[in-house]
């Protein structure tokens, strides 16, 4: 199945991108990465990045389930 996309990610809902960034910063702060916005993300361990992403998904699922 061929894709007509140019291979670049596009932002469909700009407000969602801002909200995800706030959530990411909040989660990072809670796990001890208080200066997350200014850290070189390439120097973070896979474990730290995974913890942040995993917690974000967990919270999004919880939020969705509460709305049902």
Automatic annotation (TrEMBL):
Pfam family, one: SASP
Claim: DNA-binding is one of the keywords in the record: yes
Signal peptide per UniProt: none
Annotated Polar residues bias: 1-12
Example of a GO MF term: double-stranded DNA binding
Keywords: DNA-binding, Sporulation
Renumbered residue ranges of the record's region Disordered: 1-21
Record's protein name: Alpha/beta-type small acid-soluble spore protein
Record bears the keyword DNA-binding: yes
Family: Belongs to the alpha/beta-type SASP family.
């Amino acid at each position: 199945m061929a894709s007509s996309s140019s291979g670049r990610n596009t932002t469909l809902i700009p407000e969602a991108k801002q909200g995800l960034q706030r959530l990411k910063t909040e989660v990072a702060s809670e796990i001890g990465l208080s200066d997350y916005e200014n850290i070189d993300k390439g120097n973070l361990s896979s474990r730290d990045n995974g913890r942040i992403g995993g917690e974000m998904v967990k919270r999004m699922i919880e939020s969705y389930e509460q709305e049902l």
